[in-house]
Write a structure and sequence with these properties.
The protein has 248 residues and is of the alpha/beta class. The protein is built from 11 helices and 9 strands. It has a 6-stranded parallel β-sheet with strand order 3-2-1-7-8-9, with helices on both faces. The structure holds adenosine-5-diphosphoribose.
Length: 248
C-alpha cells in the first residue's frame, strides 16, 4: 500500500458519488508548480508586506513598485505549468459537469489545465484594468512596461486582481455562494482558509461532507469528513493515472 492509499480510496468514493461538488482552492494548489504561496514556509507574506504591494493605497502611493512586484510574479508564473492537481480538477469537471471550481489563485493555471467551470475569486494576474475608463484586457507580456497605459484613454492601468480591502466582483461572489449552498461535496484544497469571504463559504454548506487536502491543518480541519496531510498534487496524481476521474 503506498502512502495515503486508504485516504485516496475514501476520496475516490466521495468524489465519485457527488452530483453537485464544489472545490475551493488556494495557493497551495500551485505550490507544486513552483508558484510561491503567501503564508506557508517560503510564503510571499513572509518577505513582503501586503500593505505595500497588494492594496489600493499601495498602488496609489507607488504604482511603479506594485507593478515591479507583479512583473516579478508574472515572471514566476510564466515558467509554471499545471500540476496533477490542476489536471485532476479539469478532468473532474468533464466527469461531473455541474462541478464548480472556486479559486483564490490569480495564476491562470486552471485555465491552462482545461478547467472552464471556474470562478477566479481574486481575479487574474494576466488581466490589466484601466483605472480611468475601467477597460479590461488580457496582457501576457512579461514584463509589462511600467506603468502600463490604457490603449483607449491613456489612463494608468493596474493588475486585474482583487487587493486587500477591495470587494469581490459581485458575479463571482453570487455564483460561488449559490454553488456552495447547493453543493453535496466541498473540496478544500491548498488554502489556509483564513482570508474572507472565501474562508466563510464552507459555513454555507454545513451538511455537505468537506474534504481537505493540505500538508498543514487549518481552521476547517475539525469539521472535515476527510482531512489529508499531503501535498495535493502528489495525492491526486495516481487518480489521474488510473482514469478514476473518467469513471467515478
Ligand atoms: N498542497 C496542498 N496545500 C499546500 C501545498 C501543497 N503542495 N503547499 C502548501 N500548501 C498549503 C499551506 O499549508 C497553506 O495552508 O497551502 C496553503 C496556502 O495558504 P496561503 O499561502 O495563505 O494561500 P491562500 O490560502 O490561497 O491565501 C488566500 O490570501 O494573500 C491573499 O489573495 C491572496 O488568494 C490569496 C489569499
Amino acid at each position: 500500500m503506498n502512502r495515503w492509499e486508504a485516504e485516496r480510496e475514501a476520496f475516490r468514493k466521495l468524489a465519485g458519488a457527488a452530483r453537485a461538488p464544489v472545490a475551493i482552492v488556494g495557493a497551495g494548489l500551485s505550490a507544486e508548480s513552483g508558484v510561491p504561496t503567501f503564508r506557508g514556509p517560503g510564503g510571499l507574506w513572509r518577505s513582503h508586506r501586503p500593505e505595500e504591494l497588494a492594496t489600493p493605497g499601495a498602488f496609489q502611493r507607488d504604482p511603479r513598485l506594485v507593478w515591479e512586484w507583479y512583473n516579478w510574479r508574472r515572471g514566476r508564473v510564466a515558467q509554471a505549468t499545471p500540476n496533477p492537481a490542476h489536471r485532476w480538477l479539469a478532468a473532474y469537471e468533464r466527469q461531473v459537469p455541474s462541478f464548480l471550481l472556486i479559486t483564490q489563485n490569480v495564476d491562470g493555471l486552471h485555465g491552462l489545465a482545461g478547467s472552464r467551470n471556474l470562478v477566479e475569486f481574486h481575479g487574474n494576474l494576466w488581466v490589466v484594468r484601466c483605472t480611468r475608463c475601467g477597460r479590461e484586457r488580457e496582457d501576457r507580456s512579461v514584463p509589462v512596461p511600467v506603468p502600463p497605459r490604457c490603449p483607449d484613454c491613456g489612463g494608468l492601468c493596474r493588475p486585474g486582481v482583487v487587493w486587500f480591502g477591495e470587494a469581490i466582483p459581485r458575479d463571482a461572489l453570487a455564483r460561488s455562494i449559490a454553488a456552495v449552498q447547493a453543493c453535496d461535496l466541498l473540496l478544500v484544497l491548498g488554502t489556509s482558509a483564513v482570508v474572507h469571504p472565501v474562508a466563510g463559504l464552507p459555513d454555507l454548506a454545513p451538511e455537505a461532507p468537506l474534504v481537505e487536502i493540505n500538508p498543514a491543518s487549518t481552521p476547517l480541519t475539525p469539521r472535515a469528513r476527510l482531512s489529508v496531510r499531503a501535498p495535493v498534487g502528489e495525492f491526486l496524481a495516481p487518480l489521474l493515472a488510473d482514469g478514476t476521474e473518467e469513471n467515478g
